[in-house]
Design goal:
two-stranded antiparallel ribbon; 20 helices; 67% helix; 471 residues; mainly alpha
Length: 471
Amino acid sequence: MAFDPTILWRAPEVNPINHKARSIPGLNPINVYGRVFTFSWLGFMIAFWSWYAFPPLLSITIAKDLKLKQTDVANSNIIALTATLLVRLVAGPSCDRFGPRWTFAGCLLAGSIPTALAGLVTNAKGLMALRFFIGILGGSFVPCQVWSTGFFDKNVVGTANALTGGLGNAGGGITYFLMPAVFDSLVANQHLTPHKAWRIAFIVPFIAIVAVAIGMIICCPDTPTGNWADRHRAAEQSLSTHLNVDPVVDVPGAISAERRTGSGSESPSDTDEKLRIDATGKAGAFGDHEAHLGEQEMLDTARGEIVAKPSFKEAIPVIFSMQTLVQGACYFNSFGAELAINSILGAYYAKNFPKLGQTGSGNWAAMFGLLNVVCRPLGGVVADMAYNRTHNLWSKKLLIHAYGVLAGAFLIAIGLTNSHKQSTMFGLVAGMAFFLEGGNGLNYALVPHVHPHANGKFILIPIASSKYGIY
C-alpha cells in the first residue's frame, strides 16, 4: 500500500479497546495524539540538551576557567550518567504507579534546578556534584517511551517510539550547536568575559525545561482514555461495548470476557474459569475512527492494558527473564555507546583537528547527535515493516543483532584508523551512527511486545543497562 501523507496531520484511526492511535499525526499538535507525540520528543530533546550542555564547553572554556585536569573532565562525564542510572531505576515503577506524564514532568522540573545553579560552580568537586544532579534529566527517557507506548498501537508503536527517542536524542547534537553559539554571543555581543558567559549560558536550557514541563502538565492527558488510575476501567468498558460480554479483571495483566446472562448471578465455579475466554456475542458497532478488530484481538488488547502495580514479587520475574536480559545487553551496546561517544566526541575532534577550534569541533560533533532525527526513527520504521510483513517477532530480533554487528564493525574501523583526514573520520562516524542509532530504534520497537503488563519496569532495564556503556 502506498504511503498516504495525510496521516501525518489527520485524526488517526484508533484501536476500539485501548483507544491507541494506529497512525502518527506528528504534524498536528492540536490533535491529542499529535500533541502527546510532540511533547514526548520535545521534552526529551530539551532534557538531553541540558543533560549534555557541559561537554561542548567543557574541554576548553570550562576546563581553563576551573583549572580542570583531563581526569576531572572524564570523571565528570561518568558521574553525569550515575544519577541517570539511579533515576531511571525509580522512573519505571513510578510510571506504572503514577503515570508517565507526571513522572516526565517531575524529572524535568527536578533537573531544571541544578541546571539553573550551574553558574555557581567554582572547582572540580563542585562540577562533579552539579553534573550528578543534572543527570536527573536523563531519567526522562523512561516516561518518554512509556507515554508514547501508551498512545500508539502495536502496528506503529515501533515507529512512534523511534521517532520520539530519535528526535529527543537529537538534543545531544543540538547542544553542541546551541551552547557554543550562546557562549559566543554572550562574549561577542554582550561583551562578557568567558568566566561569566559560560555560567549565564545555562539559564537558556533552564527556561526551556520549565516551559516544556508546565506545557506538558497543562495541555496533555495521561492516557488516550483519561486519567492513569482509570485506564483499566476504560478498557473494560470498551470491551463490554464492542462485545456482548462482561469483562472480568482478576489479577494485574489478566482479563477475560464472560457471556452476559439475564440472571446477573455468578456461580463459584465461574471464578475458576475467569481466564477461559467465553466471548460468543456479536461485535458491537464501531465508531468512525475505530479500527475493526476481531473478538480475540480485542480481548488480547484489553489484557495488555492491565498494568501491574509495582511490587518486588512482580518485578523479579520481569527483570530476570531472558527477554529482558537480552534486550538490556543490546541496549547496553547501542545507547550506552552513544552516550559515551556524545561525551567525548567534541574533544576527540578538537584533538585530531585542532584547526577547528571549540565551536568548529562542536559543530561537527553535533552531526552525530542530529543523525538521531533520521537513523533512530528509521530503525523503528524498518522494525515495523518487517513485523507487519512477517507477523513474527523474530524479524525484529534478528534486525537488532544485525545492526549491532555492523555498528561494531564501524567502531573498530574508527579505532584502528584514528584518521586525521576529516572526510574519512566524519564518514566513518556517520556510518557508525546509522547502525548504532538505528539499533536504539529497533530495541524500542520490540519493547511493547515484551511484558506489556509491566511496561514501566521492563523499559527501565534496557535503559538502565545502557548507562554502563560510558564506563
